[in-house]
Every structure is written in structure tokens, then in C-alpha cells.
Design goal:
Helix content: 55-70%
Strand content: under 5%
Strand order of the largest sheet: 1-2
Order of helices and strands: HHHEEHHHHHHHHHHHHHHHHH
Number of strands: 2
Shape: globular
Radius of gyration: 22 Å
Largest sheet: 2 strands, antiparallel
């Protein structure tokens, strides 16, 4: 690729990085706001790091001293532990902590050298999580851009799509406002996984199998249900016959395939090792009575309800689905692959006992699947004419504005974090008073 095209590809990421750094520093980088970086589930995801590297206690005996005493905040207090076999264990999976580890270690080195409070929860550690959120956002966007190149999307389509998903979906919220949640990390892993899979379908490189296994293992370790991403593999292929050919190629390399399976197993077994150290048992279902009820999915609620509808609060996703129908209307394989994945994904996610996933902006569990769902938008933008591009950009800009206004409303509790209905939504529609 010519140098000028490389620069043009890099500029959107540089712009996004600068904007996100400005937003995050304004939101979080002060003593008063820093504690909100780790809220609810995010406290559990992160807790592995101070537990292992500072307090050396995977039964979280330091919780009372730190979370319930030194840093106690009634608005943020959340006990991420549960008792199993008489021992306290972390309810959440450790994958997010693994991805946060380099930033945690840098913060710990800084605090130790500077003589600060090296307990894992003082402001420098929390600031490091915000940097991690930006890093994985940009990493995910970079991999997604490479994936879109393999779909032959031009610079215009890729640039507009990267900006649209960053500022026009809840990816922005979970990268900037709640970077301790797992979603931006999963987004990066999914983008890397799909890019690697697409590349392996084009070049048949055996080493790609290893990287796919490693990435899939991390995806499962961050959030197990996200291994559903394997259902998107047909979409990144050119045709059903090409996909079958690729599968046959995988099984024609038994040594590499077995090594890849072992790699996947080794990665996901990290959680079992932690459980064994904590309780003496290699497997624990830490979600107790929480689980999926596949006989009562809430697909319509998840997509369009006033409570937490994906298309209502983040309409950019609706445009992505429309793009697929338009751009692949003559490609039965691609359209069927896309729609089948989206329907199956929605079915599974909406079957969780708490289908709205508690306090969240829009349906947060779709964030990690953005690299699948927004491929057709970039392809469409690459195919339309100049005048149509002006119209498309105008529509996308309007949707970005609506999304940002609703994120603002959510942050200041104009939109309730869980209990929204039709009357409340329209009573407060785009109302910025708080």
C-alpha cells in the first residue's frame, strides 16, 4: 500500500485516540471522579490483579479493609464475592484482568517508585484502566480496519465506519465512561479473531490456527458466551463452498489442529487453576441461580423495547442491519450468514435470566460483536456514488448526535439505568436538563 494510503488509514485512529484521551481525562482523571472507573461488575473483573500481585490472596480477605472501609462509597459499593466450599471467590471471570495486566503493572511500578499508596486501588491504578480502555478500543479498530480491507472496503467506507461505531454506538460508552467493564476488551479480541480467520481463509497459513485458538480462548476467558463468534466464520468466507474448503484444510493439518485445540484449552484452563487455588476445586459455577432460559427469550424486548432496546438507544445498529439487507440482497450466502448469526446471537443473549443485563446503556452485550455486524455498512459506503455518500454521512452524523445525547442523558440519570418505559422515554426524549 502506498505511503499516502497508509497515512490516510492511520489518521482516523489518531483522531479517535486524541478525542478519547481528552474525554477520559476530563471524565475520570481527578481524585473525586476516579473511583467511578470501577463500578459494579468491573470491580470483580479487576479484583484479580490486586489479589494476586499485591495482597496475594485469591479469597479476597482485603475486601473489607479496602472496598468496605478505606475506599467505601455507598454509591459504588459492590461485593463481587460469593462463598463456595466455605471460601470466598470472585464471581467474575479473569480474562478482563489478564488484558488489563500490563497497565496494572505499569501503574504499580509508578506508585511503588513514587512512594504512593500501592494497594491496587489508589488513583494511578484506576487511571491505568482508562488508558487500557483506550488502548483496546484502538487495537480493536485497527484489526477491524484490516478486516474491512479484506472485504475490499475503500478508505472512505472504512473511515466513516470506524468513526460511526466509535461515536455512534455504546462502544464509546464502554471505552470512555466504564472502561473497567469487559466489552471493549472483547471488542478488540473479536476483531482480531475475525481478521485472523479471514486472513487464514485467503492464504491458508497454518500458524493462523494457533492465533485463532489463542484469541478464542481469551474471548471465552473474558466472557464465555462470546465464543458464539465462531458462528460468524461463514460470513467472513466468500461462499459456502469456500468455507467448506477452509474447514477441510483445517482438518488436513492434524498436528497444527491438535496444537491449536491444546492452546485453546490451556488458555481457558487459567480460570480452573484460579478456582483450584481458591477452593481446591477446578470448576465452580459462580453465577449461582443465574442462567439462560432458552424457552423464554426476549428478542423483541432486547432489540426495540423502551427498557433497553438496542435499536432504540443505539440506532446505528439498525442501520448496520439495513446495510446488510441492501448490500447483500443479491448474495444469498452472505445475507443468510449475516441474518442467521444476528438472529441466533440475539436469541441466546436475550435468553439470559436478566435479558436487559442490569445497569447498562442500550444492550451492552452487543458491543463485542460490532466487528461482525458493521461489516456491511463499510461495504455499502464503498459502493455508493458521491451524492449518495453525502446523504449517508449526513444520516450517520445525525445518528451519532442522537447516540451521544442519549449517553449524556444516561450518565446524568435522565435516562434511568434500568427502569425505562414508553412514557418516561418520550417525556425525557433528548432533554438535557438534570
Amino acid at each position: 500500500m502506498p505511503f499516502s494510503q497508509n497515512v490516510r488509514s492511520f489518521l482516523p485512529l489518531a483522531f479517535i485516540g486524541v478525542v478519547m484521551l481528552s474525554v477520559v481525562s476530563n471524565l475520570h482523571w481527578n481524585q473525586r471522579a476516579a473511583p467511578s472507573i470501577l463500578e459494579a461488575d468491573a470491580r470483580g473483573y479487576y479484583a484479580y490483579l490486586p489479589a494476586i500481585f499485591i495482597h496475594h490472596d485469591l479469597n479476597y480477605g482485603f475486601f473489607e479493609e479496602l472496598d468496605a472501609d478505606r475506599y467505601f462509597n455507598p454509591n459504588l459499593h459492590y461485593d463481587y464475592r460469593l462463598t463456595v466450599y466455605g471460601k470466598k471467590v470472585n464471581k467474575y471471570f479473569c480474562g478482563t484482568a489478564i488484558l488489563q495486566l500490563p497497565f496494572f503493572l505499569l501503574a504499580h511500578a509508578y506508585v511503588t517508585i513514587s512512594g504512593g499508596v500501592a494497594d491496587g486501588y489508589s488513583p494511578p491504578y484506576l487511571y491505568a484502566i482508562t488508558v487500557a480502555g483506550i488502548f483496546y478500543l484502538l487495537l480493536g479498530l485497527w484489526f477491524f480496519d484490516r478486516l474491512l480491507k479484506q472485504f475490499e472496503a475503500g478508505v472512505f467506507g472504512r473511515t466513516v465506519t470506524l468513526l460511526a461505531i466509535t461515536f455512534g454506538t455504546n462502544l464509546f460508552y464502554y471505552a470512555a465512561v466504564e472502561p473497567g467493564m469487559s466489552h471493549v476488551y472483547s471488542f478488540a479480541l473479536v476483531a482480531a479473531f475475525l481478521n485472523t480467520a479471514k486472513a487464514s481463509m485467503r492464504s491458508a497459513e497454518p500458524k493462523a490456527m494457533f492465533f485463532m485458538a489463542l484469541l478464542l480462548g481469551l474471548i471465552g476467558l473474558v466472557r464465555p458466551v462470546n465464543v458464539l463468534i465462531i458462528g460468524a466464520l461463514p460470513l467472513v468466507s466468500n461462499s459456502w463452498s469456500a468455507f467448506i474448503t477452509w474447514l477441510r484444510w483445517l482438518f488436513s493439518k492434524p498436528i497444527q489442529l491438535i496444537a491449536s485445540i491444546l492452546t485453546f484449552g490451556a488458555v481457558v484452563s487459567v480460570q480452573s487453576v484460579i478456582y483450584w487455588i481458591s477452593t481446591g476445586s477446578g470448576w465452580i459455577y459462580t453465577y449461582a441461580e443465574e442462567g439462560f432460559n432458552f424457552l423464554e427469550p426476549h428478542m423483541i424486548d432486547m432489540l426495540i423495547s423502551y427498557k433497553k432496546g438496542l435499536f432504540l438507544y443505539t440506532p446505528m445498529f439498525f442501520l448496520a442491519v439495513l446495510s446488510a439487507i441492501w448490500v447483500w440482497k443479491k448474495s444469498t450466502f452472505r445475507l443468510l450468514s449475516y441474518v442467521s448469526f444476528f438472529v441466533a446471537l440475539t436469541f441466546v443473549l436475550s435468553s439470559w435470566w436478566n435479558w436487559w443485563y442490569g445497569g447498562s446503556f442500550s444492550s451492552r452485550v452487543f458491543v463485542e460483536f460490532i466487528p461482525v455486524l458493521f461489516i456491511p455498512l463499510a461495504v455499502l459506503l464503498n459502493r455508493i456514488g458521491q451524492m449518495e455518500r453525502y446523504v449517508a454521512v449526513s444520516v450517520l452524523f445525525l445518528v451519532v448526535v442522537v447516540c451521544q445525547l442519549q449517553i449524556y442523558q444516561y450518565r446524568y440519570y435522565i435516562i434511568h439505568w434500568e427502569n425505562m418505559d414508553k412514557e418516561l422515554y418520550w417525556d425525557r426524549f433528548l432533554d438535557l436538563r438534570h
